[in-house]
Amino acid sequence: xxxxxxxxxxxxxxxxxxxxxxxxxxxxxxxxxxxxxxxxxxxxxxxxxxxxxxxxxxxxxxxxxxxxxxxxxxxxxxxxxxxxxxxxxxxxxxxxxxxxxxxxxxxxxxxxxxxxxxxxxxxxxxxxxxxxxxxxxxxxxxxxxxxxxxxxxxx
Length: 155
What we know:
Blueprint: E1 8-12, E2 19-23, H1 31-39, H2 44-63, H3 70-74, E3 76-82, E4 85-91, H4 97-102, E5 122-125, E6 132-135, H5 146-154
Antiparallel strand pairs: 1-2, 3-4, 5-6
Helix pairs in contact: 2-5
């Protein structure tokens, strides 16, 4: 806590040479209130983190590829309070989100085509016709770093 004397004193002005009465002020810090503002779940820092997290969430939802809408609707913002203060976590719990974000096959971390593991062909329904497609390999999907780009653009 900062404590200054509450008494008045006289100080001579350098410019005018006349005495000037100055009242001193006592400042008392409410450390509990300051801590709550900076580190609490309902403090101003937490509110600002939530606003910034929602901005990233909105940007990510605009950028994510949509087939059924499941991935887009699963993107959420969560406020948390850690040892260093409040923060916002933006993400999804959909299992295929990582593959959409980072890419697969030749576009993904391994940089190699996708081959069948249990048989001679990969079998999957065509997006256009719905008929089954049989392939010996596929190149994969290019990355769509929707979260990373949204975070960059919100900064």
